[in-house]
């Protein structure tokens, strides 16, 4: 998991203006994040550009953007993805193609072209542009690592007030640990590497949950929330930051209220900060009956 700070978010929380780092060490993590990022962009009416690792054929990329079969293997691209490709909403490209006719990578050329593509997407009637860039282009083009680092740390103008979002994906099997650490710090957002997982970070008086709380992660959810409440001193206060939970099912929500009620018997006060949707869910399950519980809706 990337550094445990507020920059870490699930891919589902990517918005226009976001510039995110993600890393992978196998095909499952690489394709899962890409598929979610691309399909969410298509659903939001954005143009999506995918710069896959050089050498990966377009049919393979399209297959991974479609639904998997029962065994989790990529199937054929579904009608929605095929339609988006035909209409030009989904574009499969490469870094070489982007900066053409230039042959040598420069940050100025690449950023200029991405600015042009963002403006073009808006002119074509899309809400904006999102790009997924697999950073294997660095090796393919023989670009110096320093050039890549400079680009990543001098790109704010692409995003500030602009309808553009970008995910830069780094293969942990190829980039050194020092480069990965530097790039994680350079990006305003770091993405969780796996879909369907639950992550937790804890500091004094605060438990932050990210990802998905459902049947598959319920045991972990119960464990981390229960432990945080037990460790809160009698009469103390704990903040549960749930804004970055992409999904909270009814079972986990009910378990949360059960744990809060038990902690309330020791005088522990709990403040839950969550989305409006999760706020409504907790209220429907009877959160208002717990005197030591405060619910606060947060946006973003």
Automatic annotation (TrEMBL):
Superkingdom of origin: Bacteria
InterPro entries per UniProt: MEDS_domain, STAS_dom, STAS_dom_sf
Residue ranges of every copy of the STAS domain listed in the record: 206-272
Listed PROSITE patterns: STAS
A Pfam entry, by short name: MEDS
The protein's name in its UniProt record: MEDS: MEthanogen/methylotroph, DcmR Sensory domain
Organism: Actinacidiphila glaucinigra
């Amino acid at each position: 998991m990337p550094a445990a700070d507020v920059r870490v978010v699930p891919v589902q929380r990517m918005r226009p203006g976001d510039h995110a780092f993600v890393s992978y060490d196998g095909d499952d993590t690489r394709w899962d994040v890409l598929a979610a990022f691309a399909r969410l962009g298509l659903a939001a009416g954005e143009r999506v550009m995918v710069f896959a690792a050089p050498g990966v054929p377009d049919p393979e990329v399209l297959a991974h953007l479609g639904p998997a079969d029962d065994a989790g293997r990529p199937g054929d691209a579904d009608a929605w993805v095929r339609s988006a490709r035909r209409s030009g909403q989904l574009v499969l490209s490469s870094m070489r193609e982007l900066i053409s006719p230039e042959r040598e990578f420069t940050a100025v050329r690449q950023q200029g072209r991405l600015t042009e593509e963002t403006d073009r997407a808006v002119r074509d009637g899309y809400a904006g542009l999102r790009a997924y860039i697999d950073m294997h282009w660095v090796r393919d083009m023989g670009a110096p690592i320093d050039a890549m680092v400079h680009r990543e740390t001098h790109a704010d103008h692409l995003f500030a007030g602009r309808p553009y979002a970008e995910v830069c994906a780094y293969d942990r099997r190829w980039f050194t640990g020092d480069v990965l650490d530097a790039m994680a710090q350079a990006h305003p957002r770091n993405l969780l590497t796996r879909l369907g997982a639950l992550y937790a970070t804890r500091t004094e008086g605060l438990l932050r949950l990210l990802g998905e709380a459902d049947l598959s992660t319920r045991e972990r959810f119960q464990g981390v929330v229960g432990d945080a409440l037990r460790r809160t001193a009698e009469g103390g206060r704990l903040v549960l930051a749930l804004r970055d939970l992409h999904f909270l099912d009814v079972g986990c929500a009910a378990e949360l209220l059960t744990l809060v009620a038990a902690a309330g018997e020791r005088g522990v006060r709990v403040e839950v900060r969550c989305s409006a949707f999760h706020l409504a869910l907790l209220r429907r399950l009877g959160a208002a009956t717990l005197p030591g519980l405060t619910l606060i809706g947060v946006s973003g």
